[in-house]
Amino acid sequence: MNLIEIQDDNYKEIIDSLLSRGEDDYTNIDRVVYGIINSVKKRGDDALIEHTAKFDNVVLNSLRVSEQEFEEAVSIVGQEFLNILESAKKNISDYHRKQLQSSWMTNDKEGIILGQIIRPLARVGIYVPGGKAAYPSTVLMNAVPAGVAGVESIAMVTPPNKDGKINPYILAGAKVAGVTEVYKIGGAQSVAALAYGTNTIKAVDKIVGPGNIYVARAKRAVFGLVDIDMIAGPSEICILACEGQNPRFIAADLLSQAEHDEMASSILITTSKALALEVKKEVEIQRNLLNRDEIIKKSLESYGYIFLVRDMEKAIEVSNEIAPEHLEVMVDNPFELLPKIKNAGAIFLGEYTPEPVGDYFAGPNHTLPTSGTAKFSSPLGVYDFIKKSSLLYYNKEALSRIKDKVVSFAEAEGLSGHANSIKVRF
């Protein structure tokens, strides 16, 4: 990891480079993505089968996962893991139910009723990375809030293994989350299918869930036809730590993000040089014990930093500039710093709240803003699966009280038709 002593604003150039990592020229990728999308629009299921054979080396006989495949998956993962999934689901459900919003109306002015109607989206598509990987946590974090919001129709897509089957842990997650409509397709072709629909797959209103660069660019391409959750960048963690904190804990948490991929960023901001050196040493010790050592090494060499600052005020200033996806606050009294923390996707307080507890079990969503977007965006939540309609009612007497003001407003904008809409009623 790179150790840098912060003086005034000398960190901003480094942060700018961190936040812009992954911003490449996507011209060639977009050319491929748009070709795939157009083929799915034109040829539907046939294009899905063709692209799955080309990119996943799997010839599909059917696109949809059968009930028998669900039963086989549940049998493979076993009851103990199903129980863990159920416990995680309960925590996620309990947390997200607190985000529910209610419709409301007011009639505090005579003859006028104003309000807001909250309704769930009708149909949502969830993308879950597959193949060699297994992310049942992604299933829960996307499907459970949608269910809490009241979404009645959920379709999940995930790429198949080489044997044409879906990873059993992913299907077990879907089973626990109540998702019964699962398709064995991935990549840009699955995003196109969800957005435009095929004979087998009905189009959705919104697509959520992480994926590789082709999935991300496909989501960007169909945005506007359907809604999407976000375009997620590489994963990141930032840890604020003062003197006296446990270097083994800090090193382990930094490594937990570095193992995601070579572009993941792991940052420690500390007021203690002794702690910085201890963490740096501990990172090397623990790194050699993990099974993704090469990925971790590249991640830490390119995007691993230890910032040494004069005080915790400066540490928070730097952290707010980074606006990290995950922020761990390892100080003696973390709640005292909370009011000063302005930008972070998820905030983990204290040395016994490591980031993985949020990834899997605690309840808050693990789909978080990255690349500095926590300055203006939020974790995935129930609010992502609802829509709002404004409600207005005026009776004749109420309209007559303000008609001249509306007419004047319309005429000031040169919209005589708007003004006339009011005038004809009187």
Would you mind describing this structure in some detail?
The protein is α/β, with parallel strands linked by helices. The protein has 3 domains: 2-21 and 234-363, Rossmann fold (3-Layer(aba) Sandwich), CATH 3.40.50.1980; 30-228, Rossmann fold; 395-423, no CATH class. It is 46% helix and 17% strand. Helix 13 (334-337) links the parallel strand 12 and strand 13 (346-349). The termini are far apart.
Question: What features would you highlight for this structure?
Answer:
alpha/beta, Rossmann fold, 426 residues, 14 strands, five-stranded parallel sheet, six-stranded parallel sheet, 17% strand, 3 domains, single chain
Quick take:
With 426 residues, the chain is α/β, with parallel strands linked by helices.
Which structural category fits the helices and strands? alpha/beta
What is the strand content?
Answer: 15-25%
CATH superfamily of the largest domain: Nitrogenase molybdenum iron protein domain
How many domains is the backbone divided into?
3
Number of strands: 14
Low-pLDDT residue intervals, each spanning 5 or more residues: none
Note the total helix count: 16
CATH fold group of the largest domain: Rossmann fold
Task: For the record, give the distance between the C-alpha atoms at the N and C termini, rounded to a whole number.
Answer: 75 Å
Written as H for each helix and E for each strand, in order along the chain, the element string is EHHHHEEEHEHEHEHEEHEHHEHEHEHEHH
What is the CATH top level name of the largest domain? Alpha Beta
User: Shape from CA axes?
Assistant: globular
Indicate the mean pLDDT: 93
Biggest sheet statistics: 6 strands, parallel
